[in-house]
Amino acid sequence: MLQQFTVSCSLSDTLLITLAVLGISIVVVNSAWLRTILLVTGFVFLLYMGWVSWRSEPKPTKDHEKAGFSTFKQIAFASSVSLLNPHAILDTVGVIGISSLQYSGTDLLVFGISCILVSWLWFTGLALAGRTTGKLDKSGRLTLIINKLSALVMWGSACYIGLTLFSI
After folding, report:
1. Residue 34 near residue 27 (C-beta atoms within 8 A)
2. Is the pLDDT reported for residue 21 higher than 70?
3. 63 vs 66, 68, 124, 143, 160, CA distance in Å?
4. Three-class SS of residue 138?
5. Which of 54, 32, 35, 31 is nearest to 43 (CA)?
6. Can you give the pLDDT at residue 69?
7. Candidate ranges 23-37, 62-76, 119-133; pick with highest mean pLDDT
8. Mean pLDDT, to the nearest integer, of 83-104?
9. How far apart are CA 88 and CA 44, in angstroms?
10. Three-state secondary-structure class, residue 44
11. Does 37 or 26 have the greater pLDDT score?
């Protein structure tokens, strides 16, 4: 599962970073209606994902049990969290894409590749942290706490997006 998660998320992020560096940011920044659609969708998406995360109840596992999704579900979930998450799109376009506007030629290529490498390292680290947590947390209590904290972060991000919506 570690490989599927890492590769799915990393490839999805690579696509978003590549699009942002290639100039999709200019389209989004200059289109008020597109930005508004992404913000509203991101707001709703994060509220929903926070609710799902808050309500999730990990089941205790035994050493011989294998917890988690099937390979297909793991790939689909990991990809959807990146590609269908308007907040991730806004972050990629708004931060990486806008930052890339100051570069050209080889510098732009190096910037894009650096962002992609950092993304791959980030998702590899997340996958390793998840695997370690799963091995250490047989009762599911730590996972429950992490899910609650994740929900709060998602709701906080949704609030930020909501405030951003009211400012446009």
Report:
1. yes
2. yes
3. 8, 13, 23, 16, 41
4. coil
5. 35
6. 65
7. 119-133
8. 82
9. 13
10. helix
11. 37
Three-state SS at 157: helix
Long-range CB pairs of 106-109 (<8 Å, 24+ gap) are 108/21
pTM of the predicted protein model: 0.73
In angstroms, the CA 101 to CA 54 distance is 38
CA 24 from centre of chain: 18
Non-local (6+) Cβ contacts of 75 within 8 A are 4, 8
Residue reference for tokens 């993304």: 119
Residues 90 and 42: their CA atoms lie apart, in Å, by: 8
> So where are the chain's domains?
2-167
Segment 59-72, tens digit of pLDDT:
766 654 555 667 78
